[in-house]
Amino acid sequence: MVLRLELRQHVGAPCRPIVSVGEHVKKGQLIAEPTGLGANIHSSVYGTVKEITETAILIEADEEQPEEFVKIKDTESNLDAIIEAGVVGAGGAGFPAGIKFKGDIEGGYVIVNAAECEPILTHNMAYIEDHAEELVRGLKYLLEITKAAKGYIAIKPHHTKQLIALGKATKNEDNIEIKYLPNMYPAGDERVIVRELLGVELEPGQLPSVAKAIISNVETVKNVVAAIEERRPVITKDLTVAGRVKDEDAQTGRVFLNVPIGMPISYFIDQCGGILEPYGEIVLGGPFTGKHGELDSPVTKTLGGIIVSMPLIQEKRKLGIICCECGAQEARLHEIASLMGAEVVAEERCKRMTDDGRGRYRCSLPGMCPGQAETVLKLKGKGAEALLISNCED
């Protein structure tokens, strides 16, 4: 099997390869380094480098795959270990964790985002159920690194098995608490978490650091523990496969833990019986913010879901689109419309979308969707006969 390790699996520029075609590499070996903002990339398998392109390193995996891996080099601090391991925001954001955890929040808060915000995805909950103590250890490492005073684990109250496991794991931890999030989308948005847990309303574009908080996804914390305790680089990913697959038990979601980064997503769809025809498209990520994928798309450090969608309706009416930060934005909605065979004649933003001062439009109150009557009338006036929307809780 040939694995494709993307050179850009993080916020920032693509990494620079440091291996050559024909070279035999080991699992855990450093194969690409950042040229600026970014994160190290390591081989997830033992194999031979077959090709290096502008965007990826292709490795043909050996038939034999020993469990052993190349450990990251010795570091002076736990923070340096996180940087060496190439840890990034595994929930989809991909921001280099070593930079985030350098933030000065002495006396503040480290919050583990256990919202598992996107519908269908369940791999974070599967991990917590069996590894709650490991998650708490990771949070304790982050409290030490950031000098924060309190650690919170933010989770929705209906995850009862996970809450029981976390309750046992935090029983003797005086500075770690479990906090409840509302059962809505997007409860995992950083500004929603800060608002619900700390009572601070961040403006569009403001970071949680304004509220003396750092927020980190469950799997990111898992990778922090692996980097510190095992000297293990980020070479695997947890993900959920769901949708139109032949295995009925997998249609509502099957979890795969610790899969090698770079593997084609077709492998995991095949593990669920293959695609059930007819289908619409393959979505990489969650239903709200996922993007279009192909069977040869690779697993990356930020991939959380592989969803085979139902057939898309074919729409001959002229469409208007309403863009929202919490869901799909212009490019994705145009892509969906194209797959539907529809013509987009007009587009508007949700009225809560405001410029954050840097040219990016952000929701002013994520999770509190306003009425869209005024926006709908504008689109109708521009010739729209039907709507394609991406609103949050509505």
UniProtKB/TrEMBL annotation:
> Where does the NADH-ubiquinone oxidoreductase 51kDa subunit FMN-binding domain lie?
83-225
Q: Name one GO molecular function term.
A: electron transfer activity
The chain positions of domain RnfC Barrel sandwich hybrid read 5-58
Cited Gene3D superfamilies? NADH-ubiquinone oxidoreductase 51kDa subunit
Lineage, top-rank taxon, reads Bacteria
**Which segments cross the bilayer?**
none
Which keywords annotate this record? 4Fe-4S, Electron transport, Iron, Iron-sulfur, Metal-binding, Repeat, Transport
The record, for NCBIfam families, names: PR_assoc_PrdC
Put simply, this protein is called Respiratory-chain NADH dehydrogenase 51 Kd subunit
Record organism: Peptacetobacter hiranonis (strain DSM 13275 / JCM 10541 / KCTC 15199 / TO-931)
- Taxonomic classification: Bacteria, Bacillati, Bacillota, Clostridia, Peptostreptococcales
